[in-house]
Design goal:
single chain, about 100 residues, alpha+beta, four-stranded mixed sheet, 4 strands, about 35% helix
């Protein structure tokens, strides 16, 4: 993580929460910030938690996340002006949804 104060504040905020079931990225769409959010949100997601991201077409960060991750499915929603996608965090027991 870089030394930028917003990076530290974001991670500090996540650390103050119990495991989360749903995370939606819809803020700064730069590769650096999206990567920071995805990486940290995934570590705080509960098993089978869902990470969604708006405007995945504005950087390669979501593509890299999917390529490097262990996701069985990627959900995408496309319309004339939006590209939204999500992945479910793999459960230690496999992709079992309760």
């Amino acid at each position: 993580m870089s030394g930028h104060p917003l990076d530290r504040e974001f991670v500090k905020a996540l650390d103050s929460l119990p495991p989360i079931d749903f995370f939606l990225h819809d803020s700064n769409h730069t590769y650096r910030w999206q990567s920071l959010e995805y990486e940290n949100a995934l570590t705080h997601l509960s098993p089978n938690g869902l990470l969604m991201s708006d405007d995945i077409d504005l950087s390669w960060a979501f593509i890299k996340l999917v390529r490097d991750g262990n996701f069985s499915k990627v959900a995408k929603l496309l319309d004339s002006g939006k590209v939204l996608a999500g992945v479910r965090k793999p459960s230690p027991l496999g992709n079992v949804v309760s």
